[in-house]
Target: FAD-binding oxidoreductase
Amino acid sequence: MPGYSEPVWAEEHIRKSSGVPLESGETVDLAVVGAGILGLATAFHAARNGLKVQVIDAGRIGDGASGLNGGQVIPGLKYDPEWLLQHFGRERGEVLINFASQTADAVFDLIRKEKLDVAYNRNGWIQACHTEAALKTASSRFAQWKALGADVEMLDAQTIERLIGTSNYHGGFLDRRAGVIQPLAYTMELSRIAAAAGARITENMKCRKLEKRQDRWLLTMENGVEIGARSVLVATNAYTGNLVPGLAQTLVPLHSFQIATEPLPEHVARDILPQGHAVSDSRRILVYYRRTPDRRLILGGRGPLSRPKHIDDWSHLERAMARLFPSLSDVEISRRWYGRVAMTPDHLPHLHEPEKGLLAFVGCQGRGVGLMTAMSRRLADYILTGDQAALPFPITPIKPISFHFLRNIGVAATIGWYRMLDAIEQ
Model:
């Protein structure tokens, strides 16, 4: 497709295909299906602690959302601390608040401790508010996290205009715990350290069947190769198929589209995100954006539910860029790409263990880089010890969404309605 390609950072990191063959009859302590951030980081922690680990991915490492996302590392969950306490009760709520507060730390600490070759910037994330009502909500979020000691700040209209370079917002919420990374490099580096710890990683190998055989799980690949495992982690998230009955039907997969400009002239770029903040706005159909080290602006948001067929499928992002930054109206777009994200009906991550030794964790709600990194250590600890105290989220049953086969119609209608409301509020 003319104008469509891999993400702009794909050319920064050469991907070498993993040549580790999958041997039929092999038995491992842990089989991980899905070589994204969650799968690779869990494999790393498990292998580092002495488990025999096999990671399997149907495609190349980095081809899914872990390599295609916008690279924003945002702590917290969709909901604020007070809601978590009310919904889960004090004991579980406090565990979740503590966990959520440290998800960004998990990423940046891992990069530093393991000396990962990953470009990053930890200057914070801004939630930019396009209405007074959104600003009021952000003020409540600020007060709750500030009371817990988080490094957060409320921004007035003048300050947010200086930090972003646009007068489109009434103010906003700055979380200095957050930052940005180069996501493909991060995913590839997780693969490297997992392999160095002893995990075997096999790409381009689809697992088509999973069944329990006495005290172990039997995984059967498309080519007929079979391996056994004491435990299995299904880490496929938005790319979940029918390997675990009903799991895919608990999720609403959406497409996140992104565009990247050519490197901006210095005189144009100096007023746009001059301190390198990541930004998401408060619209119902939000847009998110950041700068790269070579002065490109990357902007993303929800796109069509079907696969893109023409560069016009990214035109809504170009209009958003022109609205926010009129000086970029005529700038050339060098890259366009998209990936799949998974939402849950309650906007919370879901942890499932339908049978002993079979785990699945799904539903990032836009915070996948930090969430999946932090959760990986907890999952590895649980697999090692069997102690549920290691898990911040409760294990819940798989509950497919009613009339899931009609999801695209419902989601398309909802997106259309939200876009109209957002347009009215501009």
Notes: The chain has one domain: 8-124+177-404. The two ends are 33 Å apart (CA to CA). Residues 407-425 form the longest helix (19 residues).
